[in-house]
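User: Please fill in residues for this 143-position structure.
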């Protein structure tokens, strides 16, 4: 019968398991932090992409309000609307697209401010002047 303590062997094995536990906690904590950071970055990127696509769809929907008579008769794609109407259309299409989609990005309604002064394509007076100038050119050329 051996009455000598055998605690040294047990102490050594418990140190190894303690070291393994600490090592696993450090590694798993780092991996979890990286996963959460990647998920956060992905969410921000996806939100930005969804918002950008919502604005593009809204813009295309507004352009669908073009003057069909001008298009059918002259082949001219034109949209004539005061800024207030364009703002109303933008608010309507943004709201309707965000309500119907099951995006994770929920759009809260905001007022839209549209300024068309810088866009010569939306200046009706300039558009009429260009058509008249082109018509005079055709008349002078004998077309």
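Assistant: Residues filled in for all 143 positions:
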């Amino acid at each position: 019968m051996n009455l000598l303590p055998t605690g040294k062997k047990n102490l050594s094995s418990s140190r190894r398991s303690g070291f393994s536990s600490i090592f696993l906690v450090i590694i798993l904590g780092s991996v979890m932090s990286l996963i959460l950071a990647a998920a956060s970055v992905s969410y921000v990127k996806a939100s930005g992409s969804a918002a950008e696509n919502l604005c593009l769809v809204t813009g295309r929907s507004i352009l669908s309000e073009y003057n069909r008579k001008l298009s059918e008769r002259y082949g001219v794609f034109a949209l004539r609307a005061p800024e207030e109407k364009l703002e109303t259309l933008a608010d309507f299409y943004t709201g309707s697209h965000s309500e119907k989609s099951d995006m994770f990005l929920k759009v809260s309604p905001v007022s839209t401010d549209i300024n068309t002064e810088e866009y010569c394509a939306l200046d009706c007076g300039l558009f009429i002047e260009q058509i008249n100038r082109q018509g005079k050119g055709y008349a002078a050329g004998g077309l």
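For context: Residues 52-141 form one domain.
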